[in-house]
Write a structure and sequence with these properties.
mainly alpha; Growth Hormone, Chain: A
Length: 391
């Protein structure tokens, strides 16, 4: 295709990298303090589960539809722009929240923006370079993305712990940073595409048997992979008994920074490992490690243990997140790949909300350890099913 070279449209990769950098700086300033904010505003573990699960579900499901619509109408930038604008504007309302019900609306709305923009943005990245350097292009973009995530989580730690700012001014700063992501989108050059007559198909019946089995196994894992907010809340719960209030809130933020660093450092090596030893083997390790990590959160309530456990949690994400998508692609035929990935993301998205609600109910009525034992059981179950069912 004319204009699609390793250099010619690579400006798109840089521009979208800058966009993702500022967006992730903004988002990761919110992420570690959000569960604490829910508690401060009168919420409980069940509310944390609903807010976290609803936001994650919306993101996963909307990615399928927005990608399809951008293909169908031949335009991607309107979806990218609107997605980032929705997220940025939504963040302006977070520091104005005075009750957890406000967060029940604002957080999912912010995730709507992410769900709308992600698939069209990734499609622009793929369209902007030749296939020989496509992996490098996504890796370059991912580097911007993860750098922003690390900087954002470090910033919130500095602002709260070292400079003594409360959550409200931190949320205002986060909202302002989000708007720095918008101007570069204007300069992104989009390839002219003709609208297409496409029908979105999301169905297990059309997929090969091994892929159907894997989607069901990944969904079982997703039912135990509840929102990250429970991990942070568990840390705060333990440290509230050991340290003063400010330190009890600062240490979970520090642990979240550690999670982000480990996730970033091991994402690319995990992908390379899955190329060498097989996606199934990496997922077996990831699912089992999730089971071990959750068990540790349930049974080992100490600072030293949590330092190790948050590292393991980051490693789990590095092992599982990209590998699941790659494995779903591997198991599908080329002509059904879009349907396969759409079905995969939708199944995962539908499982995310009940996963976090179940986790919240267990926490509320039995105790926090029950939530992590539940996650551990689902992690080990998914690993066992993968080993038995996928040959």
């Amino acid at each position: 295709m004319e204009g699609k070279t390793s250099v010619g449209m690579s400006i798109n990769i840089i521009l979208l990298g800058i966009v993702s950098f500022f967006t992730d700086v903004s988002s990761e300033m919110i992420t570690p303090i959000l569960p604490m904010l829910i508690i401060i505003l009168g919420g409980n573990a069940l509310i944390i589960g609903v807010i976290g699960g609803l936001g994650d579900s919306i993101t996963s499901i909307l990615q399928v539809f927005s990608g399809h619509w951008s293909d169908k109408y031949g335009k991607r930038k309107p979806f990218i722009y609107s997605g980032y604008i929705i997220s940025a504007v939504s963040k302006l309302f977070l520091p104005l929240s005075t009750m957890w019900q406000h967060l029940m609306i604002i957080r999912p709305l912010e995730r709507v923006g992410k769900g709308i923009r992600t698939a069209p943005r990734d499609a622009v990245i793929a369209d902007s370079v030749v296939s020989e350097v496509r992996g490098k292009a996504f890796g370059f973009h991912r580097a911007f993305d993860t750098s922003g995530a690390i900087l954002g989580s470090v910033l919130v730690l500095v602002l709260y712990w070292l400079l003594g700012l409360e959550f409200t001014p931190i949320l205002w700063i986060s909202a302002i940073v989000a708007f720095f992501a918008l101007p570069p989108i204007y300069f992104v050059r989009e390839e002219v595409r003709k609208p297409q007559r496409l029908t979105l198909k999301i169905s297990l019946r059309a997929l090969p048997r091994r892929l159907r089995l894997f989607v069901l196994i990944a969904t079982a894992f997703a039912l135990g992979n509840f929102t990250y907010m429970f991990f942070i809340t568990r840390a705060q719960e333990i440290f509230a008994q050991l340290f003063a209030e400010k330190m009890a809130k600062a240490i979970p933020i520090l642990l979240y920074v550690l999670f982000n660093i480990v996730y970033t450092l091991f994402s690319i090596p995990s992908g390379i490992l899955s190329d060498k030893i097989g996606r199934k083997n990496v997922l077996l390790l990831g699912y089992s490690l999730f089971g071990v990590t959750c068990l540790g959160f349930a049974l080992l309530p100490s600072l030293t243990s949590f330092l190790i456990l948050f590292c393991l949690y980051g490693l789990v994400y590095a092992l599982v997140d990209g590998t699941q998508r790659a494995f779903a692609s591997d198991l599908s035929s080329e002509e059904l790949r879009g349907t396969a990935l759409g079905t995969f993301h939708t199944s995962i998205g539908l499982a995310t909300l009940p996963a976090s609600i179940i986790a919240g109910i267990l926490w509320q009525h039995i105790g926090s350890s029950a939530t992590f034992i539940y996650g551990s059981i689902l992690g080990f179950t998914a690993s066992m099913l993968l080993r038995i069912c996928i040959k």
